[in-house]
Amino acid sequence: MWDKSLPDSGAMGSWRGLQPARGIVHLHSPYSHDACDNMPRDANGVPNEPCLQDLREALCVDQIDFAALTDHDDTMAEEEFTTLFSMRDGDTPVLDGSGAQIASRITCDDGHLVTVTVGGENDIMPIMLHHHVPGTVQQRHDTYNGVDAAAVQAFRDAGGLAWIAHTEQHDITQLRTLLPDGIEVYNLHANIDPNIRSTYLGLDSAGAIQAAAQFADTNPGHPEPDLALLSFITPNQPAIDRWNQLLADGHHIPATAGSDAHENALPIMLADGERGDSYRRVLRWFSNIALVDDRNDPAQVEAALAKGRLFAVFEMLGTPEGLDIHAGTGELGDTVPVGTTLEVAIPHVRNLDRSLPAPTIVATVYRIDANGPTMVANGSEDLSVPMTSAGAYRVEITMVPRHLGPYLADLGTAAAEQTVPWIYASPIYAQ
User: Fold this and answer.
1) How confident is the prediction along the chain (431 residues), in pLDDT tens digits per residue?
2) Which option is the CATH number for 9-316: 3.20.20.140, 1.20.1090.10, 3.40.640.10, 3.40.50.12500?
3) Biggest alpha carbon distance in the chain?
4) Helices and strands: H and E segment counts in the chain
């Protein structure tokens, strides 16, 4: 039977004392004007409580450890900073050394803890802010809408990180000027929105919606609705290309996958009685795993994101067990001497039912230097790769998810026979 939730992130393992923290980086609440089918709040400004409860329940059901909210400035800039945490009964504030609130904590019914932080999504996406940028409401708007080095610095001065969402829509010249702390290598909204698909990704404009609509079938033999993403998942190649270009310039740039969840993209009801883009479903599809000592400490999570001690994983395909990427004593995001050997242990799917067809899992190591990306290793077995020259060494793991074919039922197994991304790991650097 298909499991509609995710296991505790600790099921993925540990790495020389580091623990996994499962997080969503790029997430909208009722303090975004276009969330909740463009009805995030009523005329009196009261948040859409059913939509907010969908979000909160999803964070618990999907065992999310940290949620980096990124609401649009045309709503969030006008609110008091603490309002943006959308705290409800039972939540607790997380305070800094001066007593100011920098996060909130949800305690789920099963005791699981979710740490919530505040950020914004405009042309630049500040994440994990400790407070609003300074100034009047209008000055806040102006800063949040800034697309220059001054805005990047303002977000850092406000305690956060400057991230780029929708990397596919930013040209490399702009990214080189901004030099953000990190970028999105995948964005779900870009894969769904007809205009973005056709304009920026070179994909059929209606392809995702048409593919996902097949999962609305409620007749006997219908496909598992949570696998709707499998019908249109594809690498965001323009974003990957820009990541490679920044790495080729010598910059240390981590990458995340952006859920960009609003509950406003696929309002069609699927066979399980949930809308196609329910928070629970979208947050289950993929997340970002930060490697930390304490997954409930927002300072450690923020430091891991800044360092690049993280990987993005599409857990719709399965939760990975056994993944390990390191080089000597260097972890993801670290810099090691040229000549160090990069070790890649290829993961397996957790709790894979052996009666199902076996997936094919392949790891590829790329070295990115001034000449661009070069594939230096590839295979289905663990890899040992000498880092013989300077550059960024990053690992992609793909999968042919044949084990999901039976869950597609009458739809057929074709979508489970394609190679799709499973894991994007941020680089280890050799110099």
Assistant:
1) 899 999 999 999 999 999 999 999 999 999 999 999 999 999 898 999 999 999 999 999 999 999 999 999 988 999 999 999 999 999 999 999 999 999 999 999 999 999 999 999 999 999 999 999 999 999 999 999 999 999 999 999 999 999 999 999 999 999 999 999 999 999 999 999 999 999 999 999 999 989 988 998 888 899 999 999 999 999 999 999 999 999 999 999 999 999 999 999 888 888 899 999 999 999 999 999 999 999 999 999 999 999 999 999 999 999 999 999 999 999 999 999 999 999 999 999 999 999 999 999 999 999 999 999 999 999 999 999 999 999 999 999 999 999 999 999 999 999 999 999 999 999 999 99
2) 3.20.20.140
3) 63
4) 12, 22
- As given in the structure block, the two tokens for residue 66 are 């940290």
Residue 81 per-residue DSSP state: G
Q: Could you tell me if 168 and 238 are in contact, meaning their C-beta atoms sit under 8 angstroms apart?
A: yes
Q: Where are the domains of the chain?
A: 9-316
